[in-house]
Design brief:
The complex is a heterodimer of chains A (253) and B (154).
Chain A: H1 6-24, E1 27-31, H2 34-39, E2 52-58, H3 64-73, E3 81-83, H4 87-92, E4 99-104, E5 107-113, E6 132-133, E7 139-140, E8 150-155, H5 167-180, E9 185-189, H6 196-205, E10 211-214, H7 219-223, E11 231-235, E12 241-245
Parallel strand pairs in A: 1-2, 2-3, 8-9, 9-10
Antiparallel strand pairs in A: 1-4, 4-5, 6-7, 8-11, 11-12
Chain B: H1 2-18, E1 26-28, E2 34-36, E3 42-47, H2 52-67, E4 73-78, H3 85-95, E5 101-103, H4 108-112, E6 120-124, E7 130-134, H5 139-145
Parallel strand pairs in B: 3-4, 4-5
Antiparallel strand pairs in B: 1-2, 3-6, 6-7
The chains are: A alpha/beta (253), B alpha/beta (154).
């Protein structure tokens, strides 16, 4: 048996201790979906003092601005990370949220579902809805602009988000349009996953100085068959749509 | 001449970079029917029942399926996350949706097509090359899928 010199021995001992420290600490992964958390927060188990907790979001319908916005509202989730390309979820076979895993030395020691699966989404299909008002309290009649032309800008308060390409730039373009034409411009906000408070926050965040309607029952999107965001319509004085596109309307039309 | 060659190379590189190709999709629908994108122009739609934008688009998807007139095939892929195959079947039956639907139980199809959001629309040519991709049902996608003369490519 070959004897090691004291320095090599000490080095080997240090490496062994470091590797023991590195492998011994278990990690608790809690997979959540922020869009479900907005609706109902998960009842989290009490943290274990010796287990590091990491909040993980599957890499679907998520981006960094959405994570930041969520953490700002729910600081308990500070450090929430996106599971890039769902590497952890794939490795540990996680196919639902909320879900808890305790992993030690790369092996799953505990796994449990923390809640029920999200319900099917329900979308109002009727175009008949309640009377609509702008955020400033003015009545909004989709059929009668009562002026000459009227521009409707369909947008989403989730902006910036991957579903809404170039939305920040488009909102700026729309603000510029509103400032340069004599016709009224109204921004219409999609109601999915948000409420009126978020529509108001959108108005402040993007410095929108014209009227904003929160389309609470999705009735304007349905009525005008708008399926793309952001999107512009122009109505004539009779309410007839004379322009529709994902580009700023070129005035004069 | 040098400029022309450089330009041609750049053009070729940019075309290569934008034209993503995928191995053909070979799968079975929730009803057990085999589907394949091999040698077929294919419109893939990724969705989930908990996704409000997806649910809103479903009637349009059914309409697109009915209007495809053999110019392209429609295959929808339920992403399988926070979903069960029974739940998906119940959902499709409840609304009478008839388009072929694959349940991506492991997430492999979602990964194969680099989908990180729902809804996601992908139009593939017969070679599996991506013609168009969008998150929502855009005007451009509608133009690609609109009923045209028989035999016209999307």
């Amino acid at each position: 048996m070959k004897l090691l010199n004291p320095i090599t021995l000490l080095l080997n001992l240090a490496i062994l201790m470091l590797s023991l420290c590195a492998t011994a600490a278990p990690t608790e992964y809690i997979f959540i979906n922020i869009w479900d958390e907005y609706a109902q927060l998960t009842a989290l188990p009490k943290p274990h003092p010796k287990i590091e907790r990491q909040f993980i979001h599957p890499d679907i319908n998520i981006d960094k601005p959405s994570v930041d916005q969520f953490i700002a509202q729910f600081p308990a989730y500070n450090g929430l990370k996106i599971d890039k390309l769902n590497q952890l979820a794939i490795r540990y076979g996680v196919r639902q949220t909320p879900y808890r895993l305790v992993v030690e030395d790369g092996k799953v020691q505990q796994r449990e579902v923390l809640g029920t699966m999200p319900a099917d989404a329900h979308v109002a299909t009727s175009t008949e809805g309640k009377a609509l008002h702008t955020l400033s309290g003015q009545q909004f009649d989709p059929a009668r602009p009562e002026t000459g032309l009227r521009v409707l800008f369909f947008s989403d308060s989730l902006c910036p988000f991957q579903h809404i390409p170039d939305c920040t730039q488009r909102i700026t373009q729309n603000n510029r349009l509103a400032a340069t034409i004599d016709h009224p411009v109204v921004t219409v906000i999609k109601p999915f996953y948000v409420d009126q408070a978020q529509a108001k926050a959108y108005q402040e965040r993007f410095k929108v100085n014209h009227e904003v309607v929160f389309d609470s029952h999705n009735q304007l999107f349905s009525r005008f068959e708008v399926t793309e965001l952001p999107y512009w319509l122009v109505q004539d004085s009779q309410g007839k749509v004379i322009y529709r596109a994902n580009q700023v309307p070129p005035f004069p039309l | 001449m040098n400029k022309f060659i450089t330009g041609a190379i750049l053009l070729a590189l940019s075309a290569t970079a934008t034209a993503k190709s995928y191995p053909p999709l070979q799968a079975a629908t929730v009803e057990g029917q085999a589907v394949s994108s091999t040698n077929k122009v294919t419109y893939l739609k990724f969705w989930a029942t908990w996704c409000a934008y997806c649910v809103e688009e479903m009637p349009l998807l059914q309409q697109t399926y009915e209007n495809s007139q053999g110019r392209y095939q429609v295959i929808t892929v339920n992403v399988g996350f926070n979903q069960t195959v029974e739940g998906v079947k119940t959902y499709l039956n409840r609304y009478g949706y008839q388009f072929p639907t694959v349940f991506d139980s492991t997430g492999a199809i979602t990964r194969q097509y680099q989908v990180t959001g729902t809804p996601q629309h992908i139009l593939l040519d017969a070679n599996g090359t991506e013609i168009y991709r969008s998150a929502l049902m855009t005007d451009e996608l509608k133009q690609h899928l609109a009923p045209q003369q028989q035999g016209t490519q999307p």
